[in-house]
Amino acid sequence: MRSLWTDQAIADAAAPSAPLPHYGQLIDGVMVEGERRMPVLSPADAQPFATVPDASPEELSRAISAAQHAFGRWSETDFAARRQCLRRFADAMRHNIDEIAEALTREQGKPLSRSRREIANAAGAIESMIAIEVSPRLLRDDARERVELRYRPLGVAAGITAWNVPIMLAAQKIAQALYTGNTMVLKPSPYAPVATLLLGRLSIGLLPPGVLNIISGGNALGARLTSDPRISKISFTGSGPTGEAVLKAAAPHFARVTLELGGNDAAIVLPDVDPDAVVPEIFAAAFNNAGQICMAIKRLYVHADIYDAMVDRLADLAESVRLGDGMDPETDMGPVQNRAQFDKLLGLLADIRATPGARIAAGGEVPDRAGYFIRPTIVADVAEGTRIVDEEPFGPMLPVIRYDDVEDAIARANATPFGLSGSVWTSDLDRGAKLAGRLEVGTAWVNRHGGGDGAIPFGGAKASGIGREHGRLGLASYMEPQVLHVRK
Ligand code: NAD
Q1: What is the pTM of this model?
Q2: What is the whole-number distance in angstroms between the Cα of residue 316 and the centre of ligand 1?
Q3: Is 162 in the pocket of ligand 1 (CB under 6 A)?
């Protein structure tokens, strides 16, 4: 995907004519305006509405130094003290929900009610994570020796986030890194940095200076951050190609890496379900956040017996969606977040129209208005070998694929490089669990798809990622296991 956020593109961006509100970055406990600025566009009208810093190499270095300096004392505090700080931080998110939600809707496009839900859920995720007890495990205790498995923090963690659910991703990375005794330098996506920068301002007075630093900038800033030898851990959420670059950048200094990458999730609907009962949930799991969710349903396999009924009901729901500016309380679905993503989706639409037999059962239109709006689109009578099925669209488009034999559906669902999550929909729960367990994915659901929980590990198989975030596995990935032998 073409990115607007190369160093050159930022330098070329025309300076906005009217002064826009500027949001600073958090370095060593202080908000810093930054030497250089870059505009942030609202996807609802494609106009800049704010500016943020494009952090210079010197500002990045100061942020990492501050995190390194703060690590000494922070890593010596205990879990209870860190839990208390993070609980206050989660409370502050709730108290400031109006301001953060407005910024999130303006920069990301989602309806205001959805922004509020993301922030409330993010605060809840922090609380779920800090409720997990981390204690040493006794591996052996006999006449000769006592052996303990302990965990030590790693040092300075780098967090890099995508633009689709920036607050959820930021909160989860902050909570995991800080609770386990690390300090952090966090870089949000240049497409949607504002709400995350507000989190930085909010943390002042709640966290010791330097423990959390939040800086903004283009893709080159991400590359500089991940290749800095002072970084001990990288938690990255974004696309596969960038994930590969992050792995390479981490290799020379052996930084621990967690990669949360893209997906092309399949949902398999068995003929024993009632289409009326499952369609609303399946529709929401595909189109929430205008389809811009890593674990959205992106390929829907439906048994031939109920295929036409499912397509008709999905199409009816798609037609009923009120598309609009997320700031309008009447809006159900906002725009696609950015121009590059919008252009990619237009390319997919053109490809569908050129595919013999493919049928657009609903949507497919691009309203004639400013901003990046695409109506929710249901594509019927398509199969593997078309771009809409084989690629991750990451937008409001769902291909519905017919199958006759569930064994064939499972094989086709697995025939992809991706492996984030998947689901099986059936009234037979035991059979559903067996079938879902055969999906080559990090998370398999029966009769639901999507939704996160800070206490439950999440991550991808195959090209959808490396490692897990959330839950015990997530916390463990921010720590170095240490085995302590005491000879008696
Ligand atoms: P992206 O890879 O373009 O960018 C993600 C982040 O990486 C941004 O902050 C960007 O500035 C930064 N970056 C870019 N180049 C970099 C480099 N060389 N080194 C370090 N950082 C760099 O991804 P995106 O378009 O923002 O996000 C969309 C993708 O994210 C989709 O594929 C989606 O499925 C995936 N995603 C995955 C999860 C998950 O949990 N698995 C969650 C949300 C989104």
Answers
A1: 0.96
A2: 33
A3: yes
